[in-house]
């Protein structure tokens, strides 16, 4: 009878191990089910936000295209024209100063 309590203890341990495996599997299934429900709820809640972001992105894209086609070319033209006018003004100013610049005294021919 000495070996019989070992067999009983072994059988109890096998039953406890099987019970823990079953409970772990049930818990894992419950966690997987909750994760599925969470993902589904997040998808349902996030869809309106995604739609709003998409609409905003399209609006920004349209605004950028409008600015690019309607305002940038006139500004570039105006800046180019202003730069040209300023350059012509500087050239005329240099030309006018060149005409007015007196000859330095050291290069004049002295009489006498």
Tell me what the structure shows.
The protein has 112 residues and is mostly helical. The protein has a domain at 4-71. It has 1 helix and no strands. The protein has one helix at 4-100. The longest helix is centred in the middle third of the chain and has 97 residues, at 4-100. It starts with a helix and ends in a 12-residue tail after the last helix.
Range of strand content: under 5%
Q: How would the global form be characterised?
A: rod-shaped
- What's the multimeric state? single chain
Structural class: mainly alpha
- Which regions have little confidence, pLDDT < 50, spanning 5+ residues? none
Q: Helix proportion of residues, in percent? A: over 70%
User: Biggest β-sheet, characterized?
Assistant: none
Keywords:
single chain; 112 residues; mainly alpha; 0% strand
Give a short summary of the structure:
The protein is mostly helical. 87% of the residues lie in helices and 0% in strands.
Q: How is this fold's topology laid out?
A:
Layout: H1 4-100
